[in-house]
Amino acid sequence: MTAHILVIDDEESLRFTLSSFLQDEGYLVTTASSFNEAEELIQQSVFDLVFLDIQLGRHSGLDLLKEIRAHLSHTPVVMITGAPEVSTAAEAVRQGAFDYIPKPLRQETLLRVAKMALRHKTVVDQREHFRAHLTAIFGSVRDGILLVDQCQNVLEANQALINLFGLPGNVVGMSLAQMPQNIRATFTEIVEKTLMTNEQLASQRLEITDPSQKQCILNISAAPCLGDTGNPIGVVLTVRDETRLETLEKSMKKRQKFEHIVGRSEPVQVMFDLIENLAEVDTTVLIAGESGTGKELVAEALHYRSDRRENTLVKVNCAALPENLLESELFGHVKGSFTGAMKDKVGRFEQAHGGTIFLDEIGDISPALQVRLLRVLQNKEIEKVGGTGTIKVDVRIVAATNQDLMKKVRNDEFREDLYYRLRVVQIPMPPLRKRREDIPLLIEHFIGLYNQRFNRQMQRLDDDAAKQMTSYDWPGNIRELQHAVEHAFVMCRGEIIGLKHLPPELQGAVEAFTGDNEDDATRIVAALEKSGGNKSQAARLLGMSRRTIYRKIEELGIEDANDAS
To answer: What is residue 183's three-state secondary structure?
Structure first.
Protein backbone atom coordinates (compact mmCIF):
# COMPACT_ATOMS: atom_id res chain seq x y z
CA MET A 1 0.00 0.00 0.00
CA THR A 2 1.42 3.44 -1.00
CA ALA A 3 2.38 5.60 1.96
CA HIS A 4 0.55 8.94 2.20
CA ILE A 5 2.83 11.80 3.33
CA LEU A 6 1.80 15.31 4.41
CA VAL A 7 4.29 18.15 3.88
CA ILE A 8 3.62 21.37 5.86
CA ASP A 9 5.73 24.43 5.07
CA ASP A 10 4.96 28.07 4.32
CA GLU A 11 7.72 28.25 1.65
CA GLU A 12 6.33 27.21 -1.75
CA SER A 13 9.74 26.27 -3.13
CA LEU A 14 10.44 23.96 -0.21
CA ARG A 15 7.02 22.32 -0.54
CA PHE A 16 7.70 21.72 -4.23
CA THR A 17 11.17 20.31 -3.58
CA LEU A 18 9.99 17.93 -0.86
CA SER A 19 7.01 16.78 -2.92
CA SER A 20 9.20 16.08 -5.96
CA PHE A 21 11.75 14.06 -3.98
CA LEU A 22 9.05 12.00 -2.27
CA GLN A 23 6.84 11.48 -5.31
CA ASP A 24 9.85 10.27 -7.32
CA GLU A 25 10.15 7.48 -4.70
CA GLY A 26 6.52 6.48 -5.30
CA TYR A 27 4.94 8.11 -2.25
CA LEU A 28 1.55 9.88 -2.34
CA VAL A 29 2.14 13.48 -1.17
CA THR A 30 -0.26 16.18 0.07
CA THR A 31 0.97 19.68 0.96
CA ALA A 32 -0.23 22.45 3.28
CA SER A 33 1.07 26.03 3.33
CA SER A 34 -0.34 27.24 6.64
CA PHE A 35 -1.25 26.25 10.19
CA ASN A 36 -5.01 26.41 9.48
CA GLU A 37 -4.80 24.47 6.20
CA ALA A 38 -2.74 21.76 7.88
CA GLU A 39 -5.09 21.60 10.87
CA GLU A 40 -8.04 21.04 8.57
CA LEU A 41 -6.22 18.28 6.65
CA ILE A 42 -5.20 16.28 9.73
CA GLN A 43 -8.77 16.39 11.00
CA GLN A 44 -10.14 15.04 7.72
CA SER A 45 -7.52 12.54 6.52
CA VAL A 46 -5.09 9.90 7.78
CA PHE A 47 -1.41 10.23 6.94
CA ASP A 48 1.44 7.77 7.35
CA LEU A 49 4.11 10.47 7.81
CA VAL A 50 4.23 14.25 8.32
CA PHE A 51 7.09 16.65 7.50
CA LEU A 52 6.48 19.85 9.49
CA ASP A 53 8.36 23.15 9.38
CA ILE A 54 9.08 24.31 12.90
CA GLN A 55 8.15 27.90 11.92
CA LEU A 56 4.85 28.56 10.07
CA GLY A 57 4.64 32.30 9.66
CA ARG A 58 3.39 33.67 12.94
CA HIS A 59 2.57 30.18 14.21
CA SER A 60 4.94 27.67 15.78
CA GLY A 61 5.19 24.20 14.29
CA LEU A 62 5.36 22.86 17.87
CA ASP A 63 1.77 24.00 18.42
CA LEU A 64 0.68 22.11 15.31
CA LEU A 65 2.69 19.10 16.51
CA LYS A 66 0.37 18.87 19.52
CA GLU A 67 -2.65 18.87 17.20
CA ILE A 68 -1.15 16.11 15.06
CA ARG A 69 -0.37 13.99 18.13
CA ALA A 70 -3.98 14.41 19.29
CA HIS A 71 -5.53 13.31 15.97
CA LEU A 72 -2.86 11.02 14.49
CA SER A 73 -1.24 9.56 17.57
CA HIS A 74 0.71 6.83 15.74
CA THR A 75 1.85 8.94 12.78
CA PRO A 76 5.55 9.92 12.95
CA VAL A 77 6.30 13.62 12.56
CA VAL A 78 9.66 14.89 11.27
CA MET A 79 10.41 18.54 12.10
CA ILE A 80 12.16 20.81 9.57
CA THR A 81 14.23 23.63 11.02
CA GLY A 82 16.26 26.43 9.45
CA ALA A 83 18.29 27.09 12.60
CA PRO A 84 18.89 23.78 14.38
CA GLU A 85 19.44 24.26 18.08
CA VAL A 86 19.77 21.54 20.70
CA SER A 87 17.08 23.05 22.91
CA THR A 88 14.55 23.37 20.08
CA ALA A 89 15.23 19.85 18.81
CA ALA A 90 14.97 18.44 22.31
CA GLU A 91 11.64 20.17 22.86
CA ALA A 92 10.30 18.81 19.57
CA VAL A 93 11.30 15.26 20.48
CA ARG A 94 9.88 15.68 23.98
CA GLN A 95 6.53 16.66 22.50
CA GLY A 96 6.49 13.56 20.30
CA ALA A 97 8.43 14.34 17.12
CA PHE A 98 10.08 11.31 15.53
CA ASP A 99 13.13 13.24 14.28
CA TYR A 100 14.22 16.59 12.87
CA ILE A 101 16.23 17.60 9.80
CA PRO A 102 17.95 20.94 9.11
CA LYS A 103 17.67 23.22 6.09
CA PRO A 104 18.90 23.20 3.38
CA LEU A 105 17.37 19.78 2.74
CA ARG A 106 19.40 17.08 1.03
CA GLN A 107 17.56 14.46 -1.01
CA GLU A 108 19.39 11.46 0.49
CA THR A 109 18.79 12.74 4.04
CA LEU A 110 15.09 13.33 3.35
CA LEU A 111 14.54 9.87 1.84
CA ARG A 112 16.59 8.09 4.52
CA VAL A 113 14.57 9.73 7.31
CA ALA A 114 11.31 9.04 5.46
CA LYS A 115 12.12 5.33 5.16
CA MET A 116 13.08 5.13 8.84
CA ALA A 117 9.93 6.91 9.95
CA LEU A 118 7.65 4.77 7.78
CA ARG A 119 9.37 1.60 9.00
CA HIS A 120 8.74 2.79 12.54
CA LYS A 121 5.10 3.46 11.65
CA THR A 122 4.73 -0.12 10.35
CA VAL A 123 6.11 -1.55 13.59
CA VAL A 124 3.84 0.67 15.68
CA ASP A 125 0.81 -0.28 13.59
CA GLN A 126 1.58 -3.99 13.94
CA ARG A 127 2.04 -3.58 17.68
CA GLU A 128 -1.24 -1.72 18.02
CA HIS A 129 -2.98 -4.29 15.83
CA PHE A 130 -1.69 -7.06 18.06
CA ARG A 131 -2.62 -5.06 21.15
CA ALA A 132 -6.15 -4.51 19.82
CA HIS A 133 -6.53 -8.25 19.22
CA LEU A 134 -5.13 -8.99 22.67
CA THR A 135 -7.51 -6.50 24.23
CA ALA A 136 -10.42 -8.12 22.41
CA ILE A 137 -9.32 -11.55 23.61
CA PHE A 138 -8.86 -10.29 27.17
CA GLY A 139 -12.29 -8.73 27.05
CA SER A 140 -14.00 -11.85 25.72
CA VAL A 141 -12.52 -14.25 28.29
CA ARG A 142 -14.74 -14.76 31.30
CA ASP A 143 -11.83 -15.74 33.54
CA GLY A 144 -9.77 -13.01 35.15
CA ILE A 145 -6.35 -12.52 33.54
CA LEU A 146 -3.46 -10.62 35.13
CA LEU A 147 -0.02 -10.08 33.59
CA VAL A 148 2.78 -8.89 35.90
CA ASP A 149 6.48 -8.29 35.30
CA GLN A 150 9.45 -9.56 37.31
CA CYS A 151 9.13 -6.62 39.71
CA GLN A 152 5.52 -7.66 40.44
CA ASN A 153 4.06 -4.63 38.67
CA VAL A 154 0.85 -5.05 36.65
CA LEU A 155 1.35 -4.89 32.88
CA GLU A 156 -2.20 -5.83 31.88
CA ALA A 157 -5.49 -6.93 33.44
CA ASN A 158 -8.82 -7.71 31.81
CA GLN A 159 -12.20 -6.38 32.88
CA ALA A 160 -13.24 -9.72 34.37
CA LEU A 161 -10.40 -9.53 36.89
CA ILE A 162 -11.09 -5.89 37.67
CA ASN A 163 -14.77 -6.65 38.33
CA LEU A 164 -14.00 -9.75 40.38
CA PHE A 165 -11.82 -7.93 42.87
CA GLY A 166 -13.36 -4.48 42.69
CA LEU A 167 -10.13 -2.92 41.40
CA PRO A 168 -9.84 0.64 40.02
CA GLY A 169 -10.34 0.91 36.27
CA ASN A 170 -6.67 1.55 35.46
CA VAL A 171 -4.48 -0.99 37.23
CA VAL A 172 -1.54 -0.91 34.81
CA GLY A 173 1.56 0.03 36.78
CA MET A 174 0.04 -1.00 40.10
CA SER A 175 2.22 -3.18 42.32
CA LEU A 176 0.92 -6.48 43.74
CA ALA A 177 1.65 -4.93 47.14
CA GLN A 178 -1.14 -2.43 46.38
CA MET A 179 -3.69 -5.15 45.62
CA PRO A 180 -6.58 -5.77 48.07
CA GLN A 181 -5.50 -7.54 51.23
CA ASN A 182 -7.60 -10.66 50.56
CA ILE A 183 -5.58 -11.53 47.42
CA ARG A 184 -2.26 -9.75 47.95
CA ALA A 185 -0.37 -12.53 49.76
CA THR A 186 -1.66 -15.34 47.52
CA PHE A 187 -0.87 -13.51 44.27
CA THR A 188 2.61 -12.56 45.51
CA GLU A 189 3.40 -16.13 46.59
CA ILE A 190 2.23 -17.61 43.27
CA VAL A 191 4.17 -15.07 41.19
CA GLU A 192 7.39 -15.57 43.19
CA LYS A 193 7.12 -19.36 42.96
CA THR A 194 6.46 -19.25 39.20
CA LEU A 195 9.41 -16.93 38.55
CA MET A 196 11.67 -19.11 40.71
CA THR A 197 10.73 -22.45 39.10
CA ASN A 198 10.11 -21.13 35.56
CA GLU A 199 7.31 -23.69 35.33
CA GLN A 200 3.54 -23.60 35.07
CA LEU A 201 1.99 -23.69 38.52
CA ALA A 202 -0.89 -26.03 39.32
CA SER A 203 -4.18 -24.42 40.24
CA GLN A 204 -4.61 -23.17 43.78
CA ARG A 205 -7.88 -22.63 45.59
CA LEU A 206 -8.68 -19.33 47.32
CA GLU A 207 -11.72 -18.26 49.29
CA ILE A 208 -12.36 -14.51 49.45
CA THR A 209 -15.13 -12.04 50.17
CA ASP A 210 -15.89 -10.04 47.02
CA PRO A 211 -16.78 -6.30 46.96
CA SER A 212 -20.47 -7.17 47.50
CA GLN A 213 -19.52 -9.12 50.68
CA LYS A 214 -20.31 -12.46 49.04
CA GLN A 215 -18.08 -15.49 49.63
CA CYS A 216 -16.27 -16.56 46.44
CA ILE A 217 -14.35 -19.73 45.61
CA LEU A 218 -11.53 -18.99 43.18
CA ASN A 219 -9.18 -21.25 41.24
CA ILE A 220 -5.85 -19.54 40.46
CA SER A 221 -3.21 -20.87 38.07
CA ALA A 222 -0.03 -19.29 36.75
CA ALA A 223 2.44 -19.65 33.89
CA PRO A 224 5.74 -17.89 33.19
CA CYS A 225 5.87 -15.33 30.38
CA LEU A 226 9.17 -16.07 28.61
CA GLY A 227 11.46 -13.67 26.80
CA ASP A 228 13.53 -14.32 23.66
CA THR A 229 16.24 -16.06 25.72
CA GLY A 230 13.75 -18.42 27.36
CA ASN A 231 14.03 -16.73 30.74
CA PRO A 232 10.89 -15.58 32.58
CA ILE A 233 10.15 -11.88 32.14
CA GLY A 234 6.82 -12.00 33.92
CA VAL A 235 3.90 -14.17 34.98
CA VAL A 236 0.37 -14.64 33.64
CA LEU A 237 -2.22 -15.37 36.34
CA THR A 238 -5.59 -16.87 35.43
CA VAL A 239 -8.39 -16.59 37.98
CA ARG A 240 -11.55 -18.65 37.60
CA ASP A 241 -14.60 -18.06 39.77
CA GLU A 242 -15.84 -21.55 40.76
CA THR A 243 -18.32 -20.41 43.41
CA ARG A 244 -21.38 -21.49 41.45
CA LEU A 245 -19.83 -24.82 40.44
CA GLU A 246 -18.77 -25.71 43.96
CA THR A 247 -22.14 -24.66 45.39
CA LEU A 248 -23.90 -26.82 42.81
CA GLU A 249 -21.63 -29.81 43.42
CA LYS A 250 -21.97 -29.44 47.16
CA SER A 251 -25.75 -29.29 46.96
CA MET A 252 -25.69 -32.43 44.82
CA LYS A 253 -23.16 -34.09 47.16
CA LYS A 254 -21.00 -34.75 44.13
CA ARG A 255 -17.94 -32.56 44.46
CA GLN A 256 -15.28 -34.34 42.41
CA LYS A 257 -12.32 -32.39 43.75
CA PHE A 258 -11.64 -30.74 47.08
CA GLU A 259 -8.23 -29.04 47.31
CA HIS A 260 -6.07 -31.82 45.76
CA ILE A 261 -8.31 -34.69 46.89
CA VAL A 262 -10.17 -36.41 44.04
CA GLY A 263 -13.36 -38.44 44.52
CA ARG A 264 -17.15 -38.44 44.23
CA SER A 265 -18.11 -41.54 46.27
CA GLU A 266 -20.26 -41.22 49.37
CA PRO A 267 -17.39 -41.88 51.86
CA VAL A 268 -15.34 -39.18 50.17
CA GLN A 269 -18.23 -36.69 50.18
CA VAL A 270 -18.62 -37.27 53.92
CA MET A 271 -14.88 -36.68 54.33
CA PHE A 272 -15.07 -33.44 52.30
CA ASP A 273 -17.80 -32.08 54.59
CA LEU A 274 -15.85 -33.09 57.69
CA ILE A 275 -12.67 -31.37 56.46
CA GLU A 276 -14.61 -28.23 55.59
CA ASN A 277 -16.19 -28.07 59.05
CA LEU A 278 -12.92 -28.82 60.88
CA ALA A 279 -10.94 -26.26 58.91
CA GLU A 280 -12.87 -23.50 60.63
CA VAL A 281 -12.22 -24.94 64.12
CA ASP A 282 -8.69 -24.68 65.54
CA THR A 283 -8.66 -28.12 67.14
CA THR A 284 -6.38 -31.16 67.08
CA VAL A 285 -7.26 -33.74 64.42
CA LEU A 286 -6.27 -37.38 63.97
CA ILE A 287 -6.36 -38.76 60.43
CA ALA A 288 -6.64 -42.55 60.44
CA GLY A 289 -6.38 -44.87 57.48
CA GLU A 290 -4.30 -47.37 55.57
CA SER A 291 -1.06 -46.37 53.85
CA GLY A 292 -1.56 -44.64 50.53
CA THR A 293 -5.08 -43.33 51.21
CA GLY A 294 -4.07 -39.64 51.06
CA LYS A 295 -3.70 -38.63 54.70
CA GLU A 296 -1.13 -35.96 53.85
CA LEU A 297 -3.54 -34.35 51.34
CA VAL A 298 -6.18 -34.12 54.07
CA ALA A 299 -3.66 -32.41 56.37
CA GLU A 300 -2.89 -29.90 53.60
CA ALA A 301 -6.59 -29.27 53.03
CA LEU A 302 -7.15 -28.63 56.75
CA HIS A 303 -4.29 -26.14 56.84
CA TYR A 304 -5.01 -24.24 53.62
CA ARG A 305 -8.72 -23.98 54.45
CA SER A 306 -8.00 -22.60 57.93
CA ASP A 307 -7.17 -19.12 59.21
CA ARG A 308 -3.56 -20.34 59.57
CA ARG A 309 -3.09 -20.72 55.80
CA GLU A 310 -0.90 -17.61 55.54
CA ASN A 311 1.62 -19.28 57.87
CA THR A 312 3.72 -22.42 57.56
CA LEU A 313 2.57 -26.03 57.25
CA VAL A 314 5.41 -28.20 58.60
CA LYS A 315 5.39 -31.94 57.86
CA VAL A 316 7.23 -34.57 59.94
CA ASN A 317 7.35 -38.32 59.25
CA CYS A 318 7.75 -39.72 62.75
CA ALA A 319 8.70 -43.17 61.45
CA ALA A 320 11.58 -41.91 59.33
CA LEU A 321 13.96 -40.95 62.17
CA PRO A 322 15.32 -42.71 65.25
CA GLU A 323 14.10 -41.45 68.63
CA ASN A 324 17.04 -39.16 69.49
CA LEU A 325 17.05 -37.47 66.08
CA LEU A 326 13.27 -37.16 66.02
CA GLU A 327 13.29 -35.43 69.41
CA SER A 328 15.83 -32.88 68.17
CA GLU A 329 13.92 -32.49 64.90
CA LEU A 330 10.64 -31.76 66.68
CA PHE A 331 11.80 -29.59 69.56
CA GLY A 332 15.23 -28.34 68.48
CA HIS A 333 18.40 -28.44 70.56
CA VAL A 334 21.02 -26.16 72.05
CA LYS A 335 24.68 -26.22 71.14
CA GLY A 336 26.62 -28.96 72.92
CA SER A 337 23.53 -30.81 74.17
CA PHE A 338 24.81 -34.03 72.56
CA THR A 339 27.64 -35.25 70.36
CA GLY A 340 27.33 -33.54 66.99
CA ALA A 341 25.25 -30.60 68.27
CA MET A 342 27.64 -27.98 66.89
CA LYS A 343 25.12 -25.12 67.02
CA ASP A 344 21.61 -24.30 68.19
CA LYS A 345 18.84 -25.83 66.10
CA VAL A 346 15.30 -24.56 65.65
CA GLY A 347 12.80 -27.42 65.90
CA ARG A 348 9.80 -28.10 63.70
CA PHE A 349 7.35 -26.86 66.33
CA GLU A 350 9.05 -23.46 66.35
CA GLN A 351 9.09 -23.40 62.55
CA ALA A 352 5.34 -24.05 62.55
CA HIS A 353 4.56 -21.23 65.01
CA GLY A 354 1.33 -19.60 63.87
CA GLY A 355 0.69 -22.42 61.44
CA THR A 356 0.15 -26.18 61.43
CA ILE A 357 2.40 -29.17 62.13
CA PHE A 358 1.54 -32.50 60.52
CA LEU A 359 2.84 -35.50 62.47
CA ASP A 360 2.63 -38.49 60.15
CA GLU A 361 2.92 -42.07 61.48
CA ILE A 362 2.31 -40.81 65.03
CA GLY A 363 1.83 -44.39 66.26
CA ASP A 364 5.57 -45.03 65.90
CA ILE A 365 6.87 -42.48 68.41
CA SER A 366 8.53 -43.75 71.59
CA PRO A 367 6.98 -43.55 75.10
CA ALA A 368 9.42 -40.75 76.04
CA LEU A 369 8.40 -38.67 73.02
CA GLN A 370 4.76 -39.37 73.78
CA VAL A 371 5.23 -37.66 77.15
CA ARG A 372 6.91 -34.62 75.59
CA LEU A 373 4.21 -34.34 72.93
CA LEU A 374 1.52 -34.52 75.59
CA ARG A 375 3.12 -31.53 77.35
CA VAL A 376 3.03 -29.54 74.12
CA LEU A 377 -0.67 -30.28 73.72
CA GLN A 378 -1.42 -29.38 77.34
CA ASN A 379 0.79 -26.31 77.83
CA LYS A 380 1.37 -25.01 74.29
CA GLU A 381 5.11 -24.80 74.97
CA ILE A 382 8.24 -26.76 74.12
CA GLU A 383 11.64 -27.29 75.67
CA LYS A 384 14.70 -27.75 73.45
CA VAL A 385 16.94 -30.77 73.90
CA GLY A 386 19.59 -29.66 76.39
CA GLY A 387 17.72 -26.44 77.13
CA THR A 388 16.52 -25.15 80.49
CA GLY A 389 13.70 -22.80 79.53
CA THR A 390 10.41 -23.22 77.71
CA ILE A 391 9.26 -21.62 74.46
CA LYS A 392 5.62 -20.80 73.79
CA VAL A 393 4.32 -22.09 70.45
CA ASP A 394 1.02 -21.39 68.75
CA VAL A 395 0.63 -24.48 66.59
CA ARG A 396 -2.27 -26.58 65.39
CA ILE A 397 -1.41 -30.28 65.51
CA VAL A 398 -2.72 -32.64 62.85
CA ALA A 399 -1.58 -36.25 63.32
CA ALA A 400 -1.97 -39.31 61.13
CA THR A 401 -1.59 -43.05 61.57
CA ASN A 402 -2.13 -46.26 59.65
CA GLN A 403 -2.23 -48.25 62.90
CA ASP A 404 -5.01 -49.09 65.35
CA LEU A 405 -4.03 -46.69 68.13
CA MET A 406 -6.79 -47.92 70.43
CA LYS A 407 -5.32 -51.42 70.18
CA LYS A 408 -1.88 -49.99 71.00
CA VAL A 409 -3.42 -48.26 74.01
CA ARG A 410 -4.86 -51.58 75.24
CA ASN A 411 -1.42 -53.17 74.76
CA ASP A 412 0.24 -50.32 76.75
CA GLU A 413 2.17 -49.26 73.66
CA PHE A 414 0.56 -45.82 73.36
CA ARG A 415 -0.52 -43.42 76.11
CA GLU A 416 -4.28 -43.26 76.50
CA ASP A 417 -4.23 -39.58 77.54
CA LEU A 418 -2.21 -38.66 74.45
CA TYR A 419 -4.51 -40.71 72.23
CA TYR A 420 -7.58 -38.77 73.35
CA ARG A 421 -5.70 -35.47 73.14
CA LEU A 422 -4.79 -36.23 69.54
CA ARG A 423 -8.15 -37.67 68.60
CA VAL A 424 -10.32 -34.69 69.55
CA VAL A 425 -11.83 -35.30 66.13
CA GLN A 426 -10.90 -38.21 63.88
CA ILE A 427 -11.10 -38.23 60.11
CA PRO A 428 -11.37 -41.82 58.82
CA MET A 429 -9.75 -42.34 55.43
CA PRO A 430 -11.68 -44.88 53.34
CA PRO A 431 -9.47 -47.42 51.53
CA LEU A 432 -9.72 -47.45 47.76
CA ARG A 433 -11.53 -50.81 47.74
CA LYS A 434 -14.39 -49.11 49.65
CA ARG A 435 -14.67 -46.31 47.08
CA ARG A 436 -14.37 -48.13 43.76
CA GLU A 437 -16.52 -45.62 41.90
CA ASP A 438 -13.67 -43.11 42.39
CA ILE A 439 -11.14 -45.28 40.54
CA PRO A 440 -12.02 -44.05 36.98
CA LEU A 441 -11.91 -40.45 38.22
CA LEU A 442 -8.52 -41.00 39.86
CA ILE A 443 -7.17 -42.70 36.74
CA GLU A 444 -8.30 -39.75 34.63
CA HIS A 445 -6.65 -37.37 37.13
CA PHE A 446 -3.32 -39.22 37.04
CA ILE A 447 -3.37 -39.54 33.24
CA GLY A 448 -3.70 -35.76 33.07
CA LEU A 449 -0.89 -35.36 35.59
CA TYR A 450 1.54 -37.61 33.71
CA ASN A 451 0.56 -36.22 30.31
CA GLN A 452 1.74 -32.86 31.56
CA ARG A 453 4.83 -34.22 33.32
CA PHE A 454 6.00 -36.43 30.43
CA ASN A 455 4.66 -34.20 27.62
CA ARG A 456 2.47 -37.04 26.34
CA GLN A 457 -1.00 -37.27 24.81
CA MET A 458 -2.26 -40.43 26.51
CA GLN A 459 -6.02 -40.72 26.02
CA ARG A 460 -7.42 -43.46 28.23
CA LEU A 461 -7.38 -47.13 29.25
CA ASP A 462 -8.91 -49.73 26.98
CA ASP A 463 -11.88 -51.74 28.30
CA ASP A 464 -9.82 -54.69 29.59
CA ALA A 465 -7.34 -52.48 31.43
CA ALA A 466 -10.11 -50.32 32.88
CA LYS A 467 -12.00 -53.39 34.11
CA GLN A 468 -8.87 -54.80 35.72
CA MET A 469 -8.03 -51.49 37.41
CA THR A 470 -11.56 -51.22 38.80
CA SER A 471 -11.67 -54.81 40.04
CA TYR A 472 -8.24 -54.92 41.66
CA ASP A 473 -8.18 -54.80 45.47
CA TRP A 474 -5.51 -52.04 45.71
CA PRO A 475 -3.70 -52.97 48.95
CA GLY A 476 -1.50 -49.90 48.43
CA ASN A 477 -4.55 -47.69 47.84
CA ILE A 478 -4.26 -44.44 45.86
CA ARG A 479 -0.47 -44.43 46.02
CA GLU A 480 -0.40 -47.85 44.34
CA LEU A 481 -2.94 -46.69 41.76
CA GLN A 482 -0.80 -43.66 40.91
CA HIS A 483 2.30 -45.84 40.55
CA ALA A 484 0.32 -48.22 38.30
CA VAL A 485 -0.63 -45.34 35.98
CA GLU A 486 2.97 -44.11 35.93
CA HIS A 487 4.14 -47.66 35.12
CA ALA A 488 1.65 -47.78 32.24
CA PHE A 489 3.01 -44.47 30.88
CA VAL A 490 6.50 -45.96 30.84
CA MET A 491 5.40 -49.19 29.13
CA CYS A 492 2.89 -47.78 26.62
CA ARG A 493 4.19 -46.03 23.52
CA GLY A 494 0.78 -45.29 22.04
CA GLU A 495 -2.20 -43.27 23.29
CA ILE A 496 -4.37 -46.10 24.70
CA ILE A 497 -3.23 -48.04 27.79
CA GLY A 498 -3.86 -51.79 27.49
CA LEU A 499 -3.78 -54.66 29.97
CA LYS A 500 -0.21 -55.56 28.95
CA HIS A 501 0.99 -52.11 30.03
CA LEU A 502 -0.18 -52.54 33.63
CA PRO A 503 2.10 -53.82 36.44
CA PRO A 504 2.37 -57.64 36.64
CA GLU A 505 0.26 -57.92 39.79
CA LEU A 506 -2.65 -56.27 37.96
CA GLN A 507 -2.25 -58.38 34.84
CA GLY A 508 -2.63 -61.56 36.93
CA ALA A 509 -5.70 -60.36 38.86
CA VAL A 510 -9.00 -62.12 38.16
CA GLU A 511 -12.71 -61.40 38.55
CA ALA A 512 -13.82 -58.18 40.12
CA PHE A 513 -14.68 -57.71 43.76
CA THR A 514 -18.04 -56.04 44.03
CA GLY A 515 -18.11 -55.41 47.77
CA ASP A 516 -20.82 -58.09 48.14
CA ASN A 517 -19.66 -60.44 50.92
CA GLU A 518 -21.30 -63.55 49.43
CA ASP A 519 -19.74 -62.97 46.00
CA ASP A 520 -16.36 -62.12 47.54
CA ALA A 521 -16.42 -65.31 49.62
CA THR A 522 -17.24 -67.38 46.53
CA ARG A 523 -14.33 -65.88 44.59
CA ILE A 524 -11.86 -66.37 47.44
CA VAL A 525 -12.90 -70.00 47.87
CA ALA A 526 -12.58 -70.54 44.10
CA ALA A 527 -9.12 -68.95 44.05
CA LEU A 528 -8.02 -71.07 47.03
CA GLU A 529 -9.24 -74.23 45.30
CA LYS A 530 -7.44 -73.23 42.10
CA SER A 531 -4.20 -72.57 44.01
CA GLY A 532 -4.46 -75.77 46.07
CA GLY A 533 -4.97 -73.77 49.27
CA ASN A 534 -1.92 -71.57 48.76
CA LYS A 535 -3.08 -68.21 50.07
CA SER A 536 -0.20 -66.23 48.56
CA GLN A 537 -0.96 -67.62 45.11
CA ALA A 538 -4.70 -67.12 45.63
CA ALA A 539 -4.04 -63.50 46.60
CA ARG A 540 -2.09 -62.95 43.38
CA LEU A 541 -4.91 -64.47 41.35
CA LEU A 542 -7.39 -62.15 43.02
CA GLY A 543 -5.18 -59.06 42.65
CA MET A 544 -4.78 -58.47 46.39
CA SER A 545 -2.01 -58.62 48.95
CA ARG A 546 -1.39 -61.64 51.18
CA ARG A 547 -2.33 -59.54 54.20
CA THR A 548 -5.65 -58.60 52.56
CA ILE A 549 -6.65 -62.19 51.75
CA TYR A 550 -5.96 -63.22 55.35
CA ARG A 551 -8.13 -60.35 56.57
CA LYS A 552 -10.95 -61.21 54.17
CA ILE A 553 -10.83 -64.91 55.10
CA GLU A 554 -11.20 -63.90 58.73
CA GLU A 555 -13.90 -61.28 58.06
CA LEU A 556 -15.97 -63.59 55.85
CA GLY A 557 -15.52 -66.65 58.07
CA ILE A 558 -14.16 -68.83 55.28
CA GLU A 559 -13.39 -72.27 56.71
CA ASP A 560 -11.25 -75.21 55.59
CA ALA A 561 -8.88 -72.93 53.72
CA ASN A 562 -5.71 -74.97 54.15
CA ASP A 563 -2.59 -72.87 54.15
CA ALA A 564 -0.02 -74.47 51.96
CA SER A 565 2.06 -71.29 51.70
So the answer is: helix
